[in-house]
Amino acid sequence: MSAAESVSPSAPPPTGTQPLILPFERISAADLPHVGGKGANLGEMARAGFPVPPGFCVTTAAFDAFLAGCGELHALFAELEALDGKDVEAARRVAEATRAVLGRAPVPQTVADAVLATWRALGTESSWAVRSSATAEDLPDASFAGQQDTYLNIRGAEALLDAVRRCWVSLFTDRAVLYRARSGFGHRGVKLSVVVQRMVLPEVSGILFTADPITGRRETVSIDAGFGLGEALVSGLINADLYKVDKASGALLEVRVGDKALAIRPKPEGGTWEERLPEAVRQARALDDAALRELVAMGVRIEAHYGKPQDIEWCIEAGRLYVVQTRPITSLYPLPQPAPSDEELHAYASFGHVQMMTDAMPPLALQVWRLLLPFDRASPGPGGAPGESRIVTVAGSRLFLDMTPALRHPILRRVFTGILGHVYENVGKGLEALVGRPAFQRGASGGRATLRSAGRFIVPILARVLARLFVVDPARLQPGVESFMEARVTGVRTRLAAAAPGAARLREARRALWELFSEVILFVAPNIGVGVLGNRLLHHLHRRGLIGGTEEDLSALERGLPGNVTTEMDLAVGDLTDRVRPYPALAELLRSRPATEALAAARDVEGGPAFLEAWRGFLERYGMRGPGEVDLSRPRYKDEPAPLIAAIVGGLGPASANRAAGEHRAHHAALAVKAEAAGERVIAATRGGLTGWLRARLARRWVRVTRTGMGLREHPKYLLVRVLDVVRDAVREAGALLVQRGALGAAEEVYLFRFEELIAALEATQTPDLRALAAERRAVWQRDAKRAPPFVMASDGEIPTLAVRADLPPGALSGTAASAGVVEGVARVVLDPAREVLHAGEILVAPHTDPGWTPLFVHAAGLVTEVGGLMTHGSVVAREYGIPAVVSVAGATQRIRTGQRIRVDGTRGFVEVLEGGAA
User: Fold this and answer.
1) Residue 136: what pLDDT?
2) Using alpha carbons only, what angle is made at residue 635 by residues 888 and 512, rounded to the nearest 5 degrees?
3) Fewer beta carbons below 10 Å: N end or C end of the chain?
4) Domain PEP-utilising enzyme mobile spans what residues (predicted)?
5) Are residues 227 and 317 in contact, defined by beta-carbon separation less than 8 angstroms?
6) What is the DSSP string of 331-379?
7) Rounded CA gap, 310 and 209, in Å?
8) In the chain, what are the domains?
9) CA distances in angstroms from 853 to 357, 528, 529, 816, 858, listed in the order given
10) In sequence order, which residues have a C-beta less than 8 Å from that of residue 799 and are 6 or more positions away?
């Protein structure tokens, strides 16, 4: 280290309460508001003893002084705050105007004096890197990498001050303004510090990720490296070397030597130039094994210091390793919590993908499911609180099921991957990929204990399934299930009504949730399982020539199912549409006014009173349902009628003008008739041969079992949402009480707390103030809402990549065939069923479709979703309606645009864009 590097200059006297200059040695993570994310990280690393080149930060106080000299900024900031991030041209226009104003502003003399005094104390003979460091940058959850400018190899006082000013101006580059607008960061609140750092003149430089950013594995270090300055690498000018190293063992997992065509070098007089490298150099490894070991060790130490995976910029000068930046890797999906206690590799399946609702949920909604699922429950908590399921974990405010115990047993592995693969193909494939990893196979078995534990449920369920498959009259299934459901809902309602409002009622609600699914799994599951098993048995025996008919006849059995409560709700929405269609004034009222306002005014227009009477009847039966209904916190139809009104309005367009009343029910009834006829053809075609009489008798039974059992597919969800409705009332009541006592600022904040936290707050002699904690948790929830959850993941963070299909037409979007048939039509992308209207005859393109979305199916000509499998809700209802459907189409809502003409091939499982632009 040179004499200049050993100097630790003191900052100049502060201006007001904040200094204009802070040397790295006086900066910690707490100084982020003054020196920005980059400056705070550099100071934190320097104080921790990491090899950071010396330097200082020009603080945000200097930036404020610079802005104070720009009188036009107030109006420009108003324009910046008005940007919504969607209008790119508007963002460019405002950003350019802002830069023009700032470009005319001088550097304040006090700031210039402070910068130059510190620079001279450090040593004017060195070259300097001048980097922007915004206060909304290198944050734990948003890196903002590359949004502001950097200037390298700066020499001389004039060049230094000019670089500082240009960094300030770069806070308003087009990309920075647009990024903040889209990310919801206010422009007024973001300030800029400038990092001035002795520039390292490296032989080799690059980026180190302490977790693999591609696979997500936290135990793999990934390093990109090239010759010269790192600008060639980060600017994409070279194909850098790639090295992957196992953290624990130090083993080199992968080496990919890149074609490093050039190196960026500093000029003696300042600035940089590009050096073309000779063939022997460009194809050589930039890092040897010793350098890799040193890099990995340093990366591990930095990650341990920050407590989370880091993206680290490094360089090597004269054999010495330097760190010039670190930031969190914000692209990694969070690991499931609680983490495994056995330190072995675990495999998790996304609960939301199976349930067709992948949105983030608040803490109370997440706890509901840890109480509901009766598998591997923990011991009772304090005060006898019910133990929660340990297979249910949380990552990114979503639920993930730890499938490891089941997957460690060979029999259970085949059963569960088979079931999950049938329900959701990608989940099954993803779990198989994780199970195939050597690290998973080395894990302790634990399978026998899991098999014994699972046997408590599997054996009784299997016995009931077999009884229904061969003995029980199929006509008894639906009445038995419905009687069971009514008794459970009535029981929960009675128990909660008998408890005192507040803590006692919440305790009772928690206990009711804990008890519910044990009975549902043992009683209701066999009735559904026999439908699925009967269907698969018919298909299997048909392929072996033991059951007659055609595949088309067997597929037709899933249409027009009897008793499906979700289908009945959708048909009831069609009935409401029929009530409106004859009355243009009523239709226009619903189309043009907000839902609640339109309903209030409907009584004064022709047809309105009769419609409102039918509406009240609908809400009495289905008002507890709605989009995202597995989330306790989501509004129901009775709270927010907009999704239903949008579905009704969608059925009133020109394409449906000539529809007769009841046409939707007639269509469903016709499908049921065709299904019954298909069943009779299957039975008749099975009668041949010596054993034909027996096979035909079994076929008749299994046809009835299939249709009856699959018609009960939605009953458990319906039971759940009815119980959740009762629990939700108790929770909202508790929220209102906590608002009255000053613990919460709004009743909706109640969902940000767990049951035990709410009970403790309600019983406390001195009510706690939970508002700050509520704000903190809301911020986490909202941040997680922007993440895209994986369908499966490992405990080390790996998200497996599935093979791309090779049987697709050019440009087609691959998915899972969910409902047979081919349809062409106009696409309608719907992200929120409360705001977007699907018109009759259009093809619905959606992120997912749980039962709260399915009223749209009454009008849809086809279905495309980003999430889903053969047995998820949207697929089942699509088959029942007979509309072609392709699910699990990655990025469908971004790759398909409303108005494009598309072809949905629900038989082969792909989507093609025909007109309106390529996908």
Assistant:
1) 64
2) 95
3) N
4) 840-909
5) no
6) TSPPPPBSPPSS-S--EEEEHHHHHT--S---HHHHHHHHHH--SSBPP
7) 6
8) 1-199 (3.30.1490.20), 200-332 (3.30.470.20), 555-711 (no CATH), 813-915 (3.50.30.10)
9) 10, 22, 24, 19, 11
10) 215, 216, 333, 790, 792, 793
The one catalytic residue among 34, 542, 715, 873: 873
d(CA 767, CA 520): 38
Nearest one of 322, 299, 327 to 220, comparing CA atoms: 299
Containing 76, the helix (H) or strand (E) segment is helix 73-81
Place 655 in a pLDDT band, splitting at 50, 70 and 90. low
Per-residue pLDDT reduced to its tens digit, 328-373: 998 899 999 999 988 889 999 999 998 889 999 999 999 999 999 9
Task: Say if CB 193 and CB 135 are below 8 A apart.
Answer: yes
* Band (4; pLDDT cuts 50, 70, 90): very low
**Sign, Cα dihedral of 771, 772, 777, 782:** positive
Integer CA distances (angstroms), 378 to 340, 404, 594, in order: 14, 17, 47
Residue 87 has a pLDDT of 74
Indicate the average pLDDT of the chain: 88
Q: What was the pLDDT predicted at 450?
A: 61
Task: Give residue 242's pLDDT.
Answer: 94
Pairing of strands 862-865, 885-887: parallel
Out of 236-240, 526-530, 798-802, 834-838, least confident range? 236-240
Residue-wise pLDDT for 53-63, tens only, equals 999 999 999 99
pLDDT tens digit sequence for 304-324: 999 999 999 999 999 999 999
Q: Is 429:888 a contact under the CB 8 Å cutoff?
A: no
Which pLDDT score is estimated for 451? Answer: 60
Residues 315-346 as b or e (16 or more Cβ within 10 Å = b)? bbeeeebbbbbbbbbbebbbbbeeebeeeebb
User: Which phi and psi angles does 877 have, rounded to 5°?
Assistant: -70, -35
Contacts of 330 (CB under 8 A, 6+ apart): 139, 140, 141, 142, 143
For residue 773 the two structure tokens come to 């904690």
Task: Please give the average per-residue pLDDT across 11-39, as a whole number.
Answer: 81
Residue 898 phi, psi (nearest 5): -55, 135
Residues 6 or more apart in contact with residue 828 via CB below 8 angstroms: 836, 838, 839, 842, 843, 844, 845, 898
| Average pLDDT estimate for 381-403 | 92
CA 94, distance to chain mean position in Å, is 32
Give CA–CA dist 856/670, Å, rounded: 20
**What pLDDT was estimated at residue 446?**
57
Strand-pair partners of 244: 222, 254
Cα-Cα-Cα-Cα dihedral sign, residues 596, 601, 606, 608? positive
Among 330, 79, 328, CA closest to 183: 330
Question: Using an 8 Å Cβ cutoff, are 580 and 648 in contact?
Answer: yes
Q: How confident is the model at residue 188 (pLDDT cuts 50, 70, 90)?
A: low
Helices 503-543 and 363-372: angle between axes, nearest 10 degrees: 60
> Could you please report the per-residue DSSP string of 646-712?
HHHHHTTSGGGTTPPTTHHHHHHHHHHHHHHHHHHHHHHHT--STTHHHHHHHHHHHHHHHHHHHHT
Beta-sheet pairing, 822-829 with 843-846: parallel
If we measure between CA atoms, which residue out of 472, 420, 478, 388 comes closest to residue 718? Answer: 478
Q: Is the pLDDT of residue 17 over 90?
A: no
Span 198-214, pLDDT tens digits: 988 899 999 999 999 98
Would you tell me how many other CB atoms lie within 10 Å of the CB of residue 146? 15
705 in Cβ contact with 468 (< 8 Å): yes
How far apart, in whole angstroms, are the C-alpha atoms of residue 51 and residue 34? 23
Write the CA distances from 213 to 7, 224, 295, integer angstroms.
38, 12, 17
pLDDT of residue 836: 86
